[in-house]
């Protein structure tokens, strides 16, 4: 909205009073960070008070007695704090992004679709006692159906957006200069898999104060950079793009997504103000599902699906720890590979304090992000 207002009013200013900064994606991305951070800090206390009045508090329950004992003090902490992130990121994007951009439109759709799905799941969990239903919320198959449905819609729209973009039809591999040709059905399959998997990966990591939010902040920063270099030129006076210089796929108009991920970065940082140890609120599925899906969407648009496995290395490890734990438990008929899964609970039970686990996982996330950025130059 601000972007469009500035563009409209600039037509009525004299040549000496023209304000050009709003035309630059980088300027608007920085403003999106500050705006979403400010919004989160303002609305955060109000949303938390509303959640407490509604008594929307979580009661962490694990299939592990020792872990339940360690987390018993979290019983009255309100969940669904992800509403702070969704509201802040959406408002900031609407204010600073070019709303006619198709990639921005779909990004907002991802937040809306997966946010509603996560909100329904949270609500079913929190009202389980009154409805005499299990505390698992939506059944796994119910959640997966809606995740796949949202992913199919996004994949279909992206397929048509990419129709006239040669680089978008390729699979780009880290350390390799050229993309690999993809069949049409392969792109659709990868898109569905990535959006569904990434939404679940962030959800699994959302088990400690600040853990998922801090790692998402680091990923958002990297994805904002990748979106910028995918379409922006190196200077106004030259047509050379950063993508051609770094041998990355050139996706015209993807630069506007930098503003979307910058808005998420600011919103997550604002949420961390209330979610750092000891947390005043938890993210809940209403925050973790759309944030994870947004990360997968960013990788799809910039054609960095494989690089996302490096950028989000912490989430990949968390997801794989659950897969390995379940598989090993079934194969050995009752034995455990880890003390508890996801992996952060394993270290918590091993004697690490919760802040130690969180900060060390943040450091791992930063290391994975640095490694991912290093691969760009090594092409």
From TrEMBL:
Chief location of this protein within or outside the cell: membrane
The organism of origin for this protein: Anaerobaca lacustris
Name this protein carries in UniProt: Phospho-N-acetylmuramoyl-pentapeptide-transferase
Spans through the membrane: 20-44, 80-97, 103-124, 144-162, 182-204, 211-231, 251-274, 306-329, 357-376
InterPro entries to which the protein is assigned, alphabetical: Glycosyl_transferase_4 (IPR000715), PNAcMuramoyl-5peptid_Trfase (IPR003524), PNAcMuramoyl-5peptid_Trfase_CS (IPR018480)
Membrane protein topology class: Multi-pass membrane protein
Keyword flag Cell cycle: yes
Gene Ontology terms: cellular component: plasma membrane
Function: Catalyzes the initial step of the lipid cycle reactions in the biosynthesis of the cell wall peptidoglycan: transfers peptidoglycan precursor phospho-MurNAc-pentapeptide from UDP-MurNAc-pentapeptide onto the lipid carrier undecaprenyl phosphate, yielding undecaprenyl-pyrophosphoryl-MurNAc-pentapeptide, known as lipid I.
Binding site for Mg(2+): 203, 285
Classification via PANTHER family: PHOSPHO-N-ACETYLMURAMOYL-PENTAPEPTIDE-TRANSFERASE, PHOSPHO-N-ACETYLMURAMOYL-PENTAPEPTIDE-TRANSFERASE HOMOLOG
Pathway it works in: Cell wall biogenesis; peptidoglycan biosynthesis
Pfam short name (any one): MraY_sig1
Reaction catalysis annotation: UDP-N-acetyl-alpha-D-muramoyl-L-alanyl-gamma-D-glutamyl-meso-2,6-diaminopimeloyl-D-alanyl-D-alanine + di-trans,octa-cis-undecaprenyl phosphate = di-trans,octa-cis-undecaprenyl diphospho-N-acetyl-alpha-D-muramoyl-L-alanyl-D-glutamyl-meso-2,6-diaminopimeloyl-D-alanyl-D-alanine + UMP
Known cofactor(s): Mg(2+)
Position of the signal peptide: none
EC code: 2.7.8.13
CDD domains associated with the record: GT_MraY
Keywords (A to Z) from UniProt: Cell cycle, Cell division, Cell membrane, Cell shape, Cell wall biogenesis/degradation, Magnesium, Membrane, Metal-binding, Peptidoglycan synthesis, Transferase, Transmembrane, Transmembrane helix
Family: Belongs to the glycosyltransferase 4 family. MraY subfamily.
UniProt record, GO biological process: cell division; cell wall organization; peptidoglycan biosynthetic process; regulation of cell shape
Localization in the cell: Cell membrane; Membrane
């Amino acid at each position: 909205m601000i972007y469009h207002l500035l563009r409209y009013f600039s037509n009525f200013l004299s040549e000496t009073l023209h304000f050009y900064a709003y035309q630059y994606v980088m300027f608007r991305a920085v403003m999106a960070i500050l705006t979403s951070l400010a919004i989160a800090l303002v609305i955060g206390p109000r949303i938390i008070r509303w959640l407490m009045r509604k008594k929307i508090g979580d009661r962490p329950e694990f299939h592990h007695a020792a872990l339940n004992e360690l987390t018993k003090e979290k019983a009255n902490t309100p969940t669904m704090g992800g509403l702070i992130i969704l509201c802040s990121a959406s408002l900031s994007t609407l204010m600073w992004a070019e709303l006619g951009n198709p990639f921005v439109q779909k990004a907002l759709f991802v937040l809306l679709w997966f946010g509603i799905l996560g909100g329904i799941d949270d609500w079913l969990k929190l009202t389980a006692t009154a409805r005499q239903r299990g505390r698992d919320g939506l059944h796994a198959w119910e959640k997966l159906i809606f995740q796949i449905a949202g992913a199919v819609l996004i994949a279909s729209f992206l397929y048509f957006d990419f129709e006239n973009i040669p680089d978008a039809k390729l699979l780009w591999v880290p350390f390799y200069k050229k993309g690999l040709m993809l069949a049409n059905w392969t792109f659709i399959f990868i898109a569905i898999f990535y959006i569904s998997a990434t939404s679940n990966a962030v959800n699994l990591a959302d088990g400690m104060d600040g853990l998922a939010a801090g790692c998402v902040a680091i990923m958002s920063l990297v994805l904002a950079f990748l979106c910028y270099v995918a379409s922006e030129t190196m200077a106004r006076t030259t047509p050379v793009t950063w993508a051609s210089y770094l041998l990355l796929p050139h996706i015209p108009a993807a630069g506007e997504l930098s503003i979307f991920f910058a808005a998420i970065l600011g919103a997550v940082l604002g949420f961390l103000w209330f979610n750092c140890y000891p947390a005043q609120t938890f993210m809940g599925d209403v925050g973790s599902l759309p944030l994870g899906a947004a990360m997968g969407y960013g990788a799809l648009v910039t054609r960095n699906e494989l690089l996302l496995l490096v950028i989000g290395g912490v989430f990949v490890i968390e997801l794989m720890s659950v897969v390995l734990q379940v598989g090993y438990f079934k194969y050995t008929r009752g034995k455990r590979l880890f003390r508890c899964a996801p992996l952060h609970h394993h270290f918590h039970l091993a004697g690490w304090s919760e802040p130690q686990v969180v900060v060390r996982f943040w450091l791992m996330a930063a290391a994975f992000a640095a490694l991912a950025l290093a691969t760009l130059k090594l092409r």
